[in-house]
Design a protein that fits this description.
The chain is an alpha/beta fold. Helix content is about 40%, strand content about 15%. The chain has 14 helices and 15 strands. β3, α5 (about 130-140) and β4 form a beta-alpha-beta unit.
Length: about 400
């Protein structure tokens, strides 16, 4: 499967074969969620049609089959991330639960009053609020790394904030609001030198950048399956095995214990320790199918394709005039965040929708970032593998139409 022919990729996504408001649909909201290819849809259909059974401890053939597929999915994720051991892969409901799991199961015992948690101004709310709750419980303090006007992390400020009190550094790999790519490997190394534990939010980078947890040298990494052409309600927490096995359970119940009496319970090691109850079996199997689909593409061609579309869209917006583009720099993923002068982003989004163009308008769960720019929100167009140059042209025509109607 080659990226030179986007139409071949587009054809694998049935949602794009529809007509929306009488138009050929243009889906530019992949930063919020990616569409699902036939390979994933059919794999889910097969599981629910012919393989439906609960996993682990079943005494029948169907349970054995489901357990094998579920644990094979864990192996697929471990290979995809370059983990040393499949036991370092914990299935969650998504990025948000992964951050909460680490904050509560690890941070609660790790932090004490006066310790510091380091975040950046680019963070999604899911990488802010869990740490705020933890800080309130432990007496720790949150410190925030500044960005510059162009939406890039101020690395000098980052270094200046690292000290012996810095215990946790948690940051996004790619900004969901701006598309800025952070120098993760460098930031993780500097955090480790300061003695801090690191968590990388890979929700946006999982479908754009190569992810190898050993090369990154992070302690924890989280992402959501639905950002990688997979099902909803399934996500991944990678953690160093020795750290996961030292952590207390995040939730408790069946499947995460080795022995239970009314006096005491003994817990299983990772990953079962953090997967209480019936897991999202179909979600994990669907995620494995999504990984197989995505891994069949050339990642270099994916990056080149999405970057080319981003550049065409950015230059087209500049030519229209009256457009403020945020984070207009080279080190970006396929996201362009902008405002039409004098128009509310929600109004722009509504006009684009009537033209068959799906974008996102608002603060993108980045309210502190919007406060930095002193704006209520932006219009965000985000590109993926199923977009093409015709999408860019339709998008620019729709923005031109919005400009004519709203200004």
């Amino acid at each position: 499967m080659m990226m030179e022919s986007p139409d071949n990729v587009r054809a694998q996504f049935p949602q794009l074969q529809q007509v929306v408001h009488g138009q050929r649909p243009v889906y530019l909201d992949s930063a919020a969620t990616t569409l699902k290819p036939w390979a994933v849809i059919k794999r889910l259909e097969k599981f629910y049609s012919f393989e439906c059974a609960n996993v682990h401890r079943g005494a029948h053939w169907w349970s054995d089959e489901a357990t094998g597929s579920f644990e094979q999915a864990r192996k697929s994720v471990a290979q995809f991330l370059g983990a040393r051991d499949e036991a370092e892969i914990v299935f969650t409901r998504g990025t948000t639960e992964g951050v909460n799991l680490v904050a509560q199961a690890f941070g609660g015992d790790w932090l004490k009053p006066g310790d510091e948690i380091l975040l950046t101004q680019l963070e999604h709310h899911s990488n802010i609020v869990p740490w705020q709750i933890l800080a309130e419980k432990t007496g720790a303090t949150i410190r925030v790394v500044r960005i510059n006007e162009n939406g890039e992390v101020d690395l000098n400020h980052y270094k200046s904030l690292l000290n012996e009190r810095t215990k946790i550094v948690s940051f996004t790999h790619i900004s969901n609001g701006l598309g800025s790519i952070l120098p993760a490997q460098q930031m993780i190394q500097e955090a480790r030198e300061a003695g801090a534990v690191t968590l990388l939010d890979a929700a946006q980078s999982v479908s754009f950048l190569p992810l190898n947890v050993q090369d990154l040298n992070c302690d924890f990494l989280v992402f959501s399956g639905h950002k990688l052409f997979g099902p909803y309600g399934i996500g991944v927490l990678y953690g160093r095995l020795e750290m996961l096995n030292s952590m207390k359970p995040y939730q408790s119940g069946g499947s995460m214990i080795s022995k239970v009496t009314f006096e005491k319970s003994d817990y299983l090691p990772s990953p079962q320790r953090f997967e209480a109850g019936t897991p999202h079996i179909a979600g994990a199997i669907g995620l494995a199918a999504a990984i197989q689909f995505f891994s069949s593409l050339s990642l270099q061609q994916v990056q080149q394709h999405e970057t080319r579309l981003l550049n065409q869209a950015t230059e087209g917006l500049k030519e229209l005039g009256g457009v403020r583009i945020f984070a207009d720099h080279a080190n970006k993923a396929g996201i362009v965040s902008f405002l039409l002068d004098g128009a509310h982003p929600s109004d722009v989004g509504a006009v684009l929708d009537q033209q068959g163009v799906a974008v996102r308008a608002g603060h993108h769960c980045n309210q502190p970032l919007m406060d930095f720019y002193v704006i209520p929100g932006t219009v965000r167009a985000s590109f993926s593998i199923y977009n093409d140059e015709q999408d860019v042209l339709q998008f620019l025509e729709a923005v031109k139409k919005a400009k004519e109607l709203l200004l």
